Amino acid sequence: MEQYDVIIIGAGTAGLSAAIYAARSGKRTLVLEGKSCGGQIINAKAVVNYPGIKQISGVDFAMGLYEQAVEAGAKVLFQKAVRMELADQKKIVATAKQNYACSAVILAMGAKNRPLGLEREAELTGSGVSYCATCDGAFYKGKKTAVVGGGNTALEDALVLSEYCQKVTLIHRRDSFRGEWQTVQELKERSNVEILTDTVVTALEGDRQLTGIRVRNLKQEKEWVLPVHGLFAAVGQIPQSDLVRDLVELDDYGYIKADESCRTSLPGIFAAGDCRTKEIRQLATAAADGVTAALAACQLA
After folding, report:
1. Contact status, residue 295 vs residue 288, Cβ threshold 8 Å
2. Strand partners of residue 231
3. Among 5, 136, 157, 289, which one carries the catalytic annotation?
4. φ/ψ of residue 62, rounded to 5
5. 3-state helix, strand, coil in the chain (%, to 5)
6. Phi/psi at 296 (nearest 5 deg)?
7. Are strands 237-239 and 111-113 parallel, antiparallel or unpaired?
8. Number of neighbours of residue 64 by Cβ within 10 angstroms
9. Are 130 and 228 in contact (CB under 8 A)?
10. How many angstroms separate the CA atoms of 94 and 36, rounded?
11. Contact 8, 31 (CB under 8 A)
């Protein structure tokens, strides 16, 4: 069994930031990632709100973090953590290939997109239904699309789509948006963007390919079919916390309970980034979480 001081589960912004600080502190640092480095930020066409960097693509930002972590001495393995357990004073993290032991674990598994919960949503995913405008938006050039959500992700998705779609309809169930006021104003100024508030999507239209969505205005109690070729859902996330569901305390939504020092209910286990309980989930706060968790973990390792 390979021995490390700190094991980080997840190679998104929080995980890689933690790896940089742990490795630079002289700790034997392992990062385990089941998919690809970078997390959700790799889907961002342009990052313009990270302090000190005027503009950078999500992929370039993620690759910069990865290279910095590796150069600092962290080891990154593309293996999915499937089990974690306690043994004496050590934490054991298992993948399908091997078991790894350490003194401290940083959970940085992130979160995945939340579905709308509509009938046939899974069936039409990839055939008109999507959760990433920067990934799939180009397929709808010159076509009609809709975005569902009221946070920054939904606003930014609508902004991206408006650059090449014939029309973009932004649908939000409330009468005001949680996202940045400036982005809302920019959307209102675009002639090919329509904003529907107090409105929800109730059904998907089309057989093998999406042809439209049924929407309902909650105040007017009016329902109609909106013809669209693509529907982009941006209604929040589901934390990736199943790995530790029986080990650390979670909130009612499945987020790992952790304070501002990123400590969880179990000594020696820390949570950073989108998988932990917190008010703000931004790129900068994910990096800050990673740094905080790493410095705390290094005191134990």
Report:
1. no
2. 129, 146
3. 136
4. -65, -40
5. 30, 30, 40
6. -70, -40
7. antiparallel
8. 14
9. no
10. 18
11. yes
The tens digit of pLDDT for each residue in 61-113 reads 999 999 999 999 999 999 999 999 998 789 999 999 999 999 999 999 999 88
Average confidence (pLDDT) over 239-266: 95
Amino acid identity at 287: A
> What pLDDT is stored for residue 290 in this prediction?
98
Radius of gyration for the alpha carbons in the chain, expressed in angstroms and rounded: 21
Which amino acid would we find at residue 76? V
Angle separating helix axes 13-24 and 58-72, nearest 10 degrees? 20
CA dist., res. 194 & res. 112, Å (int): 27
Q: 3-state secondary structure string, 252-293? A: CCCCECCCCCCECCCCCEEECHHHECCCCCCHHHHHHHHHHH
Look at residue 12 in the predicted model and tell me its pLDDT: 96
**pLDDT tens, residue by residue, 124-143:** 998 999 998 877 888 999 99
Contacts of 246 (CB under 8 A, 6+ apart): none
Q: Is-catalytic flag, 132? A: yes
- In 3-state terms, what secondary structure has residue 81? strand
pTM: 0.77
Q: Are 40 and 153 in contact (CB under 8 A)?
A: no
Task: Note if 262 is an active site residue.
Answer: no
Q: Which helix (H) or strand (E) holds 232?
A: strand 230-233
- Is 37 a residue of the active site? no
**Cα–Cα distance between 155 and 151 in angstroms, integer?**
6
Q: How far apart are the C-alpha atoms of 53 and 64, rounded to whole Å?
A: 12
Q: Could you tell me which residues are beta bridge partners of residue 168?
A: 145, 193
Instruction: Please tell me the distance from the alpha carbon of residue 177 to that of residue 223, in angstroms, as a whole number.
Output: 22
